[in-house]
Design goal:
Blueprint lengths: L7 H16 L8 E3 L2 E3 L3 E3 L14 H9 L5 E7 L17 H16 L4 E5 L17 E2 L8 E4 L2 E4 L4 E2 L5 H17 L4 E5 L5 H6 L14 H19 L4 E5 L13 H13 L5 E5 L7 H8 L4 E4 L4 H9 L5 E4 L1 H5 L3 H7 L28
Parallel strand pairs: 3-4, 3-14, 4-5, 5-10, 6-9, 10-11, 11-12, 12-13, 13-14
Antiparallel strand pairs: 1-2, 7-8
This protein binds flavin mononucleotide.
Flavin mononucleotide binds next to strand 4 and helix 10.
Length: 374
Amino acid sequence: MGQPFAPISRCKRAASAALVTEILPMSLFSPIRLGALDLPNRIVMAPMTRNRTPGQVPNALNAEYYAQRASAGLIVTEGVTPDASGRGYIDIPGLYNAAQVQGWRQVAEAVHAKGGHIFVQLMHTGRISHPDFLDGAQPVAPSAIAAPGEIYTHAGMKPHGTPRALEAAEIPALIATYGRAATLAREAGLDGVEVHGANGYLPSQFLAPNVNQRQDEWGGSLENRARFLLGAVDSAVAAIGADRVGVRLSPGGVFNDIQDPEAPATFAYVAGELAKRNLAYLHVFNTNPGFDVAALMRANYKGTLILNGGYDRARAEADIASGLADLVAFGVPFLANPDLPARLAQGAALNAPDQGTFYGGGAKGYTDYPVLAG
Ligand SMILES: Cc1cc2nc3c(=O)[nH]c(=O)nc-3n(C[C@H](O)[C@H](O)[C@H](O)COP(=O)(O)O)c2cc1C
């Protein structure tokens, strides 16, 4: 005879579990489905360039650093070049050749061995670069407009210089590098990719009217200025599926001399377009530009939303409980606290970050931050 009903004790357990889910608000420690992944918590490690990958091939030290932080629900790696033309900084990793795939494989394996999940951030820096990083070639950008300021090279600080405006005919191949890098990411065993559309790098340069002064289908109207970013996203989606692709935006952000007087309209449009694509997530770096970024993004993006920028535990819990954010990303706190989720859970004190070792160097300030005892 079959057993039509579950034993009473199991029924009780199931009922009380349902009750708990109903009554308790979502917290940083509630599990969540993110695209193709089941995450144990809603704490994301924000992408952070650390300039510790000489030769652009991820190494054992990089693997150790990420593995130490595998208790994050999701790690988003530092910005990684999807194409040799997009390398803007000293000693940052790439993802466009076989050696790099091999290097990323050791990172993915180290993180997975500790139960973590890891997306690679695809960052083409466009005009934020220097010929010293490009075998003497000029950096590329939507228009030939130099970014003010200087960049740190092997020979010290140098001005960015004027980039070369991309030919319209070159752009589809450049967009396709995002799809190729996404394929390589999966080949390396990484869980997915985040298209870096924030902070004044190439897709953000296309979006910005002061940097993009093109008159063709890649500039002018909002639809045209968004075409590069959406094309890069679609390229990655076609390669590995929407449920393994996220996007990062910094609405209203001015880093790298981005100026957009219509930023709320720009980013409402972009969020709406991204929402149609059923992505793993939208990741928003809120730089507090003078409008309510989080509310604008939430209103225009119905999918999974990660918020970032100056969060501590109390604000993160409040934004998750209210439904403003689905997950929260922590940058500097994760850099300095490999066991950040445990510390947040216990309300433990956080290590102080050492700013002098953020960019470049070795293990000091990278893999030597202490974890809680026990
Ligand atoms: C050392 C360092 C490197 C960073 N590199 C990147 C990067 O490669 N890509 C990116 O999108 N953001 C980068 N950021 C920004 C962080 O992802 C994050 O948005 C910022 O630190 C704010 O979050 P927080 O207040 O939690 O630190 C970097 C930040 C720091 C401190």
